[in-house]
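**User:**
If convenient, please work through this fold.
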Amino acid sequence: MKNSVLSVVVISAIFLNGALSRAQDTFLVTNQNTQTELTFTNTVGTASLVDGMIVFEGELVADFAVPAVISNDKLLASVQVVVQVKLFDELPSAEEIGTVQGAVLALNDDPNDPLVTTGTFYAYGASGWLQLTNSITQLPYETYENKTNIVTMIFDYTDSPITYWVDIGNPVPSDEVSQEIFSPVASGDGINSLSISGSGALEVEGVSSAGGSTTPLSLGMSLSVYYASNSVWATVSTVGENGHDPIRIFAKIGDKWLEVGVIENPVGESDNVYTVELNGLVPGESYMFRVEDETGHTFVLTEPLQVQVIQVGETAVETVMVMEMEMKMLSVVFNTEVGRRYQVKVSESLASGAWTVENIYIDGGFTEVFTASGTQTQIRIPINKNKAFFRIFMLED
């Protein structure tokens, strides 16, 4: 049987080729996220290091902990490897697989025809093997013999049973995960070990993992997108910045990934929130987004994000008594989300990049930030002849 399978193991490793002689060669691999060293042991068969790839026939096992971490109310952990695909001729039985959280393999389209070298990816779940389909295109993930693929497995431990998704990409992750798969395992709190079985090759610099992230990255990032004052804006929240290179935002428009915004000068450390104008997006439409951070990591959304619309409704100029003096104000009514925070910025020109935060009048007092208590909110903005243009921003929580 010529094959290679990627498995996340709970109790025991998989031994698909039990007749092979046992070996104990070990290989040090650096986790590209945490920069810690992992030891892969060739427990069955043979393995050798060739041009940055561990070429094996049998099984490689690495025991390393990837604790699940809360992220956006989800308890997540993920692992990513770069492997050279060898096609299975048939799907292994449950007895051959053993007890695993999940497993991925590529099955030959026609094993009876020696000229066929193409296949599609499958994942192992509670009901057995399932053909993986791209959640965006609804098509199977196609591959071929000896193709090098990036395989990412994303596990959700929030509820029982565990569920997971798979992302297949070459030469970069596809950013389009598979359908949700119910794990054969009911519960857990993270990944215990990684087993790669059969025959194939593992890239030494292609292993990474993370807890609390939908992709195995060292930093966290969140994104909200909304339309206000004739422009589309994104609020980007970063966690643990580590560099000053630009942060770039991409959206999938049609079938192409296009850069739609950039944060030119990030702070470069700690946690930060940025507001940036985006180009080429339509209010009310939904898009897949990815963000490339200041160190080159890529963050992706697992589902489309809608460009929310802040619509300004009724406006009127009013005279308000403030500190026993009359102040001319512009009364503005606009739609809001209950519990979300908002801020108004003003400028002397729409073309100007100089927007400053304005104190607005609401609930009998002035504030720079206010929280919406209903689906529509009325605020009063002091009229300033030098700064006659305003924008309303929804802040990241």
Summary: The first strand starts at residue 4 and ends at 9. The chain is about 0% helix and 60% strand.
